[in-house]
Amino acid sequence: PAVIRRADYAQPAFLIDSVALEFDLVPERTIVKNTMRLRRNPDGAPGARLELMGEALELVSVALNGVPHAEHRAHEHGLTVENLPDAFELTIVSACQPAENTTLSGLYVSSGNFFTQCEAEGFRRITYFLDRPDVMAIYTVTLRADKAAYPVLLSNGNLVEEGELPDGRHFAKWEDPFKKPSYLFALVAGKLVAIEERIRSGSGKEKLLQVWVEPHDLDKTRHAMDSLINSIRWDEARFGLELDLDRFMIVAVSDFNMGAMENKGLNIFNTKYVLANPETATDTDFANVEAVVGHEYFHNWTGNRITCRDWFQLSLKEGLTVFRDQEFSADMQGGDTDEAARAVKRIEDVRALRQFQFAEDAGPMAHPVRPESYVEINNFYTMTVYEKGAEVVRMYQTLFGRDGFRRGMDLYFKRHDGQAVTCDDFRLALADANGRDLTQFERWYSQAGTPRVSVRTAYDSAQRRYAVTLTQHYGDCAPAARETQTGPLLIPFALGLIGRDGRDVPLRLEGETQAAGTTRVLELTEAEQTFTFVDVAEAPLPSLLRNFSAPVVVEYDYTNDELAFLLAHDSDPFNRWEAGQRLATRELLALTARAAASEPLSLDDSVVAAFARVLTDESLSPAFRELALILPSEAYLAEQMAESNPAAVHAARQFMRKRLATALRAEWLAVYERHTASGPYEPTPKATGHRALKNLALAYLAELDDPVDAIRLANAQYDAANNMTDRAAALAALLAAATTAGAAAAQPALDDFYRRFENEPLVIDKWFAMQAMQRGSLDRRIIDVVGKLMAHPAFTLRNPNRARSLIFSFCTHNPAQFHAEDGSGYAFWAEQVIALDALNPQVAARLARSLELWRRYTPALRERMREALERVASQVKSRDVREVVEKALA
Ligand code: B3K
Ligand code: ZN
Question: Which top-level enzyme class is recorded in the Swiss-Prot or TrEMBL entry (predicted)?
Answer without folding.
Answer: hydrolase
